[in-house]
Specification:
The chain is an alpha/beta fold. It is 40% helix and 14% strand. It has 4 helices and 3 strands; from the N terminus they run E-H-E-H-E-H-H. It has a 3-stranded parallel beta sheet, with helices on both faces. The longest helix has 22 residues. The protein is flat, with a radius of gyration of 20 Å. 23% of the residues are buried.
Length: 149
């Protein structure tokens, strides 16, 4: 299992490619427990695109995010689209456009941060619950924990 996916996809008439949609659709039916969309529930993803066109697949990003969100994937809010991808990289493979490079880095940083958060959610909830039981955290707004007065 992995903690997060960086999905880099091209644009196909403003949408994700039919191959991607078909693969995700088939994989979403594969939960052994029979839970609807259980295969993807709670997974984390970031979505980026590249295209030979000027918009770099920007029109497809919303559809990628919507499809993944509908399947229970936690999608990082930042995304990046690299336009004119055939000439967007220098001889070292780095993006020439500093703005596109910063958006790509931001997408990856959010993916890592969100993946860490989601991967540790159960542990964090158990810690908070144990603190609440011990009286360190108030149960409701404005209450004073026992023994603090």
């Amino acid at each position: 299992a992995c903690d997060g996916w960086l999905i880099a996809g091209p644009e196909y008439n403003g949408m994700p490619t039919p191959l991607f949609i078909n693969a995700i659709t088939w994989a979403s039916r594969g939960d052994p427990e029979g839970v609807a969309y259980g295969t993807f529930k709670g997974k984390v993803a970031a979505v980026v695109s590249a295209s030979p066109g000027a918009l770099g697949g920007l029109r497809s990003l919303r559809s990628y995010k919507e499809l993944l969100t509908n399947l229970g994937v936690v999608v990082a809010p930042a995304s990046a689209a690299v336009g004119t991808a055939f000439k967007a990289f220098d001889e070292n493979g780095s993006l020439k456009d500093k703005h596109a490079d910063s958006l790509l880095k931001m997408s990856i940083e959010q993916l890592v941060r969100t993946s860490r958060h989601e991967a540790n959610r159960d542990v964090a909830c158990k810690i908070l619950d144990s603190l609440k039981v011990k009286g360190f955290l108030p149960g409701e707004y404005g209450t004073v924990p026992p023994g603090s007065s």
